[in-house]
Every structure is written in structure tokens, then in C-alpha cells.
Write a structure and sequence with these properties.
Length: about 325
């Protein structure tokens, strides 16, 4: 188990076993019957330190209770047109599964604009996807493959990366902070594809700032990444932007391929219908109320803050001489 010893797991379990309601109830939604794997994830996130991992997990459980995360899959974003707008501006979806049974999350990182709804809706949608992954997709995959499957892989498309992406750093930092503190070690590997020169240059600077366990997870693939990704997944599970015959764009599938970001994609239809059904089970009478699900966001970790600052600095270098310095200056002021 790498840096995690069996002794550390046993010590951690002895500390977490006495936890009382309502923390015990929400912990069941976290581990989904895979207790050891869950303890290992939190231990890895704290480099095997039992005391720090215990604090991290208890903080996570308290965050879940205080923000009613257990109920978030019964809080649909309505009307459907609003959810469609969220999907069109936060490009993420599930394109299929790896040959090992891990869900393949496709992310159009560079072309996501996050400009069609309030921050609360994007945070709500992101957490819902996390919870659906952990409570529905992963248990289903575990049953199908006859072994615990507790992680996923992510393919990040950098098509269209440009300076305007800096305006989304604050929201991306919020999302990554939620993931780091409450859904640690849920991604097995990050595959970066369609990376332009500007990304490659920034990556060289950001990479040393990442923890070693994070650096090892990131693989920057040449071009669309199709050849490398086909070693771990079938063609049918390949995100549309990785297919050489496709458009090469996150926004458009092209040539008849399914756009896994679209609200009309089977994954998003299943997710949205599941959330609506859960809402009707809780409130069978009366229309579903509109309104975002507010979640308290923890302070970003120092590592994440430093990475964001470094990215701004590096993009600033590219902006000089290209008429982009003023927008960068405004971004720096807004972030203070």
C-alpha cells in the first residue's frame, strides 16, 4: 500500500470506530462498504500520519453534516435549462470506463467558461458529480468487476487554453480545495491532452510545486493522447476530443461522436434523472423548488494557493507585449 502501513491503518480505524452519529451515518456514505480503502486514501493524503489523517477525516465528516452533503443528490438544479447552461459552461462528463473498470472522467478544462450561473450552482453540480460517482458509479463498477473500485481516471483537454482562463482560477481553486479536503485520492491518474505550448511552459514551473504523490499521477500525453489512452481503455470509452478523426475540440464531438459534456449525453441524463427521482422520493407532493445548494468552502490549502499565484505569474509573462497586461492586472486586484 505504498507509504501506508497496516499498523497505521489499524491505528486509524481504532480512532475512527468510536465516532458517533451523525458522523457515523455520513461516514457510511463516504466509504460505501470499502472501509480499509477509504482509510488508506486519507492516510495517503497526509503522508501516512495517523493523527493528521484522523483530523482530516473528522473535519470532512463535520463538513458533510454541516452542509447536508448526504442530501445533495436530492437537490436538482432546476429548471433543466439552467442545468443545461451549467453543463455548457463547465465541461465535464463520463465517457466510459477503463479496462480495469475505472470511470473515465473527461474534462474540458481550457474551454470551460463558468459564466452561465452563480458560483454556488457550479460548486453544487461538482459535488453532486462527486457523490454520484462515489455512491452510484463506483459501487456499480465494483459489483460488476467483483472487486473494490474506489477511484477514477481523468482526461483533461487543454484545447483552446489562453489567457482568459485565468479569470476562472478562483472558482477552480474552490473546487480543487473541496476535492483535496473531502474527496482525497479519488483520481488514479490525470491524463493531459491537446496541450499547447503555453501549458507546457507553465507546467515546467508548476510541476515542482506539487507534492510527489500528485506529480506521479499526472501524465502529459503527446497530441490528442489517443494512442496512449487506447492502452488502458477501449475506443468506445475514449473522450471525443481524444479521437484523431474528431474535431479535436472539447465543445464539439463532430463526425457523429457523442459529446460527453452535453446535457443530452446518457451520463448526464442518468445523473439528472437520478437526482430528480431522489428529490421526488423526499418531497412527493409539490413542485421541486428552484435555488442553489449553498456549501461552505474551506480555506484553500497553501499548496493550491501557491500554484494559483504561480500560474498567474507565468501567464503574466506570456501576456506582456501582447496587449493582455491590463486584464491580468485587474485579475490580480480582484483576487486580493
Amino acid at each position: 500500500m505504498g507509504i501506508v502501513s497496516h499498523e497505521a491503518i489499524n491505528q486509524f480505524q481504532a480512532l475512527i470506530d468510536p465516532v458517533e452519529e451523525p458522523l457515523k451515518r455520513t461516514f457510511q456514505n463516504v466509504h460505501q462498504g470499502n472501509l480499509t480503502e477509504t482509510l488508506v486514501r486519507f492516510l495517503k493524503a497526509r503522508d501516512g500520519n495517523v493523527a493528521k489523517a484522523h483530523k482530516m477525516l473528522v473535519d470532512c465528516l463535520n463538513w458533510r453534516v454541516q452542509n447536508e452533503i448526504d442530501n445533495i443528490l436530492a437537490k436538482p438544479i432546476v429548471p433543466a435549462e439552467l442545468y443545461r447552461a451549467v453543463r455548457n459552461s463547465h465541461l465535464i462528463g463520463v465517457s466510459g470506463y477503463s479496462r480495469e473498470g475505472l470511470p473515465v472522467f473527461a474534462v474540458g478544462l481550457a474551454l470551460s467558461t463558468f459564466d452561465k450561473a452563480s458560483v454556488n450552482y457550479y460548486v453544487q453540480s461538482h459535488i453532486q458529480m462527486n457523490e454520484y460517482r462515489d455512491r452510484v458509479l463506483l459501487p456499480s463498477a465494483s459489483k460488476k468487476y467483483g472487486r473494490p473500485i474506489t477511484t477514477c481516471v481523468k482526461v483533461l483537454d487543454m484545447t483552446g487554453l489562453k489567457l482568459s482562463a485565468l479569470s476562472q482560477i478562483k472558482l477552480l481553486t474552490i473546487i480543487s480545495t473541496i476535492d483535496d479536503l473531502n474527496y482525497p485520492e479519488k483520481t488514479n491518474t490525470y491524463y493531459i491532452v491537446n496541450a499547447p505550448y503555453i501549458f507546457s511552459a507553465c507546467w515546467k514551473v508548476v510541476k515542482p510545486l506539487l507534492q510527489e504523490r500528485t506529480r506521479k499521477k499526472v501524465q502529459v500525453l503527446p497530441g490528442s493522447g489517443e494512442d496512449e489512452l487506447l492502452k488502458i481503455m477501449d475506443y468506445a470509452s475514449l473522450p471525443h476530443f481524444c479521437r484523431k478523426a474528431g474535431s479535436g475540440s472539447s465543445r464539439h464531438a463532430g463526425d457523429g461522436y457523442e459529446n460527453c459534456f452535453s446535457f443530452d449525453h446518457p451520463f448526464h441524463q442518468q445523473l439528472y434523472n437520478y437526482i430528480k427521482q431522489q428529490a421526488l422520493m423526499r418531497e412527493p407532493v409539490g413542485p421541486i423548488k428552484q435555488g442553489s445548494f449553498h456549501v461552505d468552502v474551506p480555506e484553500p490549502a497553501l499548496e493550491g494557493t501557491e500554484i494559483a499565484k504561480t500560474l498567474v505569474s507565468e501567464f503574466h509573462k506570456f501576456g506582456n507585449g501582447n496587449g493582455m497586461s491590463d486584464s491580468l492586472h485587474r485579475l490580480r486586484i480582484d483576487d486580493k
